[in-house]
Every structure is written in C-alpha cells, then in structure tokens.
Fold this sequence. Notes:
Blueprint: E1 3-4, H1 7-29, E2 34-40, H2 44-59, E3 63-69, H3 75-87, E4 93-96, H4 106-112, H5 124-131, H6 142-155, E5 163-167, H7 174-183, E6 187-191, H8 198-202, E7 207-210, E8 228-231, E9 235-238, E10 247-250, H9 255-259, E11 264-265, H10 272-291
Parallel strand pairs: 1-11, 2-3, 2-4, 5-6, 5-7, 7-8, 8-11
Antiparallel strand pairs: 9-10
Helix pairs in contact: 1-10, 2-10, 6-7, 6-10
The structure holds 5,10-Methenyltetrahydrofolate (GUE).
5,10-Methenyltetrahydrofolate binds at residues 49, 95-98, 120, 142, 234, 249, 268-270, 273-274, 276-277.
Amino acid sequence: MTTVIDGKDVAASVIETVKSATGALESETGVRAGLAVVIVGDDPASHTYVSAKSRMAKECGFLSVQHTLPEETSQEELAALVAELNADPSIHGILVQLPLPKHLRSEPIIQSILPEKDVDGLHVVNAGKLATGDLEGGLVSCTPAGAMVFVRRTYGDDLSGLNAVVIGRSNLFGKPMSALLLAANATVTTAHSRTKDLAAVCRNADILVAAVGRPEMVKADWVKPGAMVVDVGINRVPAPERGEGRTKLVGDVAFDECAKVAGVITPVPGGVGPMTIAMLMANTIIAACRMAGRKPPKF
Ligand SMILES: Nc1nc(=O)c2c([nH]1)NC[C@@H]1CN(c3ccc(C(=O)N[C@@H](CCC(=O)O)C(=O)O)cc3)C=[N+]21
C-alpha cells in the first residue's frame, strides 16, 4: 500500500511544537518571538501567501508585523526598512517576500538581513553553514527544511545506504535540499535540465525529490518501486474539466500514476506547501530562542 503524506497534518504538529516553545520562552524570559514579513507591490498570489504567513505567526503567539510597501518603492527605501528591522530587538525573524518588483535587486537586500534573523535561510552565511554541515548554528531555507521533516518521518534521521535524487539546483530549494540529504548520510545526486537520461537517474532513487517547475513531468516509470517521492512543484494549470476558465494546482509529479509505484508520496496541494509556512514559524522560534540564550526546539 502506498502512503500519501498529509502535509497539513505534519505541519499542524510542527505548529504545536512552535506554540509550546513560544509560550515557554515568553514565560521563562519575557521574550515574545517576533516575525516581520515585508512585501513590495501588489502581486495577488504573493499577498495570499503573505497573509497566510502573518495569520499563522499570530496563531503561534508571535508578535507578527507586516510591512506592505508600494510597487514604486526604491532600493534605498527597502534597504532602510531592512536596516530598521535588523536593529529592532522585538524582531527575531525577517522575511522579504520574493519575487520583488523588477526594478529592485533582491540579492543585496537578502544579504543585508542579519544572518541570525534570516528565517528564509538565504543569506550566504546560512547557506555556507549548511554547506559545511553546521546544521545547529544556522537557519535552513523553509521548503527544504519542511521536505526533510517528511524524509525523517519516513526513514528516520540516518539515511545511510539510501540513494537520493533531487531534480533542481536552485539556491532556494535544490542546493539546500541536496545538502540536507547529504548531511543525513544519503548518497545524493543533484539532477537538472542538463542531466542526461533523467528517467534512468531517477529510477535509482530511494528518495526522489522533484523541484523543477514543470507540471507532472515525473512519470511512473521514473519511480523505483517502493521509493519515497516528494513533490515540491506548485504549478497552476488550466482545468477545463472544472468549468471554463478554471485552473488547478498540480505538482512536478504525475501523482495518480506515480502513487501506484511509490511506497510513500506527497500530494500537491497539501504536501510540501503547508510545511513551508510551518517551517518559517519553526525558524522564527529557533532564532528567538538563540537570541535569548535558550536552547531551541528540534523539528
Ligand atoms: N522570501 C520568500 N520566502 C518564501 O518561502 C516564499 C517566497 N518568498 N515567495 C513565494 C514562495 C511560495 N511559498 C509558498 C508557501 C506556501 C504554499 C502553500 O501553502 N501551498 C498550499 C496551496 C496553496 C494554494 O492553494 O494556493 C499547498 O501546497 O497545499 C505555497 C507556496 C513560499 N514562498
């Protein structure tokens, strides 16, 4: 039988851990964890995600601050806001929603966030700590951290002897995901658009992670029987069967056919997506505990 992972359920258990750690930190030290989310412009999808993040932060008991800046915000204005949040002792986590409007350069903004407040794990200091295997000291990008919770709940903490294939090599997901799997002793292959015979590479995977941004690209004959398949894709595609002009979300994995071959599989929606938000909360309480000199919870 194939296990379909319920991401909402696992995310809820992460949130419970965050809530109790938040309560304990506040009662023991008087410090309330604070998360600032910054959004520039009026992309509707980004606003939906940001509202979900702010709502969840409140539910966790955090101080939740949202800064909504107009489309025409300058590089200097955005940099000034980040500097202000860096200096604000009530803020432990800073997230600048991406992508930024085209006239703004995101890289200098991300690199100006204090690494200890970089709850997106995108600062080079955090990427470097992960790359050198220092998992205790830094902050890990939320989506790979969430995917890794699924992997640990399936195979445990030690992936010795298991082959993992990650399709995708972005700084946001593919690279940190490969680094996390490697740190857990998996034998890791990072595949991408230039990989030769991708299907054959994937068939070797005990853990197959797809993050390419191509709707339903991974087919059943790419999956090793009994393997774990983690789908990180979020693709909005037309759904004429639901009515004219309607759309739906699909992943990078052809779910129905792959579910027949896989041992464990994550759906889209309801898989990795809810974990991304939960791990943002996890990173915020980790950052707040460290700044207060307390041992952070494990996720
Ligand atoms: N600095 C930054 N950090 C991010 O982490 C970040 C970002 N920018 N920009 C945009 C992407 C996207 N993202 C998602 C979070 C949750 C779901 C999620 O919960 N998805 C639901 C479905 C949501 C729906 O129905 O539209 C699911 O997969 O079940 C999806 C996508 C975080 N992002």
